[in-house]
Amino acid sequence: MFTGIVEAIGEVVDIHKEGTNITFTLTCPFTNELKIDQSLSHNGVCLTVIAIEGNLYSVTAIDETLKKTNLGKLEVGSKVNLERCMPANGRFDGHIVQGHVDQIGRVTAITPQDGSWLYDFEYEPEGQNITVEKGSICINGTSLTVFNSGTNTFRVAIIPYTYEHTVFHTLKVDDIVNLEFDIVGKYIRKMMNLG
């Protein structure tokens, strides 16, 4: 389980296709603390560390993951948000994040606000995923609070710290992002649909 509090930004240094899978090799500030078989969130996608060599580590994404997330769009030099699993004795600073992306979304606007930024997003409504005003959303692995919640649109505000310490400073209008909707909301929606 993750919390959506990004620890560091990693950089893709190699991409190797193996059939329909892709193995990504990255570097990050805490590579020396990783271990093989460890789960690590990459832009909100939980992947398993399969190799570590010096300041590099590798993970593999299967075809299903590549189709449903933005990982298939990564290139050498791409930056990704990284978070290790929450330790059992850790602080719960974000919200419950599983590392299972529900669908992708698209940046529709970025509006500077004299020291902060407003980001607007849209997503395809057929997945029946929803946001609620002041609810939680995970965007590229970052736990954020929703406002201006619409049928398939929402907005988030980004403070300078988050802007600088996540990949938000690299996003442009029309970029594709990974969305994981709030697990509590997903369970409530399912229960309401069963009745």
From TrEMBL:
Its EC number is 2.5.1.9. GO terms for molecular function: riboflavin synthase activity. It comes from the Bacteria. Pfam families: Lum_binding. The keyword Repeat applies. Keywords: Repeat, Riboflavin biosynthesis, Transferase. SUPFAM superfamilies: Riboflavin synthase domain-like (SSF63380). Residues 1-95, 96-192 form the Lumazine-binding domain. Catalyzes the dismutation of two molecules of 6,7-dimethyl-8-ribityllumazine, resulting in the formation of riboflavin and 5-amino-6-(D-ribitylamino)uracil. This is Riboflavin synthase. It comes from Flectobacillus longus.
